[in-house]
Amino acid sequence: MEVKRCGWCVGDALYEEYHDREWGVPVRDDPTMFEFLILETFQAGLSWITILRKRENFRKAFDDFDYRKIAAYDQSKLDELMQDPGIIRNRLKINAIVANARAFIKVQEEYGSFCDYIWSYVDHKPVKNAISYYKDAPATTALSERISKDLKKKGFKFVGPTVVYAHMQATGMVNDHETDCFRYHQV
């Protein structure tokens, strides 16, 4: 019997593995939450599969997504990243990652953890939507707009409502699996 998955991932082994194991699973630890923030920032304007295919390159280039190390990056490290053919070499996005690492640490200091802060927007429980066809899922919501505005006030970059909503989907803050997908009731 064939497993029913969300339509967006079907036909690509890497996409299917990501969908089956990670997408929509609630993330409750700050390091993983920051990793997804980096990946979603780089994904802005690009396809998610492009980012997934470069994920290990990003991991290597950005010190295993260690936000404390990234917050301390200097100009020579930024110049080195701009020469790395394994990642998306967009200076604005690379600079945003450093700004976001610094803002991430400030949020941790203020709220105890980034996860406590971000999950408070959904009462610490995933919002379970009823999407029957993945193309019907919203790109933004009033909530992603509110979070986006607050993140920007806190110094984050490249965190528009679309990026924020994709981040919410990836980290399980919202369950946008199609209702007949085998993962819908599991996450």
TrEMBL record:
<feature type="binding site">
    <location>
        <position position="6"/>
    </location>
    <ligand>
        <name>Zn(2+)</name>
    </ligand>
</feature>
<feature type="binding site">
    <location>
        <position position="181"/>
    </location>
    <ligand>
        <name>Zn(2+)</name>
    </ligand>
</feature>
<dbReference type="InterPro" id="IPR004597">
    <property type="entry name" value="Tag"/>
</dbReference>
<dbReference type="InterPro" id="IPR052891">
    <property type="entry name" value="DNA-3mA_glycosylase"/>
</dbReference>
<comment type="function">
    <text>Hydrolysis of the deoxyribose N-glycosidic bond to excise 3-methyladenine from the damaged DNA polymer formed by alkylation lesions.</text>
</comment>
<dbReference type="GO" id="GO:0008725">
    <property type="term" value="F:DNA-3-methyladenine glycosylase activity"/>
</dbReference>
<dbReference type="InterPro" id="IPR011257">
    <property type="entry name" value="DNA_glycosylase"/>
</dbReference>
<feature type="binding site">
    <location>
        <position position="177"/>
    </location>
    <ligand>
        <name>Zn(2+)</name>
    </ligand>
</feature>
<keyword id="KW-0862">Zinc</keyword>
<dbReference type="GO" id="GO:0046872">
    <property type="term" value="F:metal ion binding"/>
</dbReference>
<dbReference type="InterPro" id="IPR005019">
    <property type="entry name" value="Adenine_glyco"/>
</dbReference>
<dbReference type="Pfam" id="PF03352">
    <property type="entry name" value="Adenine_glyco"/>
</dbReference>
<protein>
    <recommendedName>
        <fullName>DNA-3-methyladenine glycosylase I</fullName>
        <ecNumber>3.2.2.20</ecNumber>
    </recommendedName>
</protein>
<keyword id="KW-0227">DNA damage</keyword>
<keyword id="KW-0234">DNA repair</keyword>
<dbReference type="GO" id="GO:0006284">
    <property type="term" value="P:base-excision repair"/>
</dbReference>
<keyword id="KW-0479">Metal-binding</keyword>
<keyword id="KW-0378">Hydrolase</keyword>
<feature type="binding site">
    <location>
        <position position="19"/>
    </location>
    <ligand>
        <name>Zn(2+)</name>
    </ligand>
</feature>
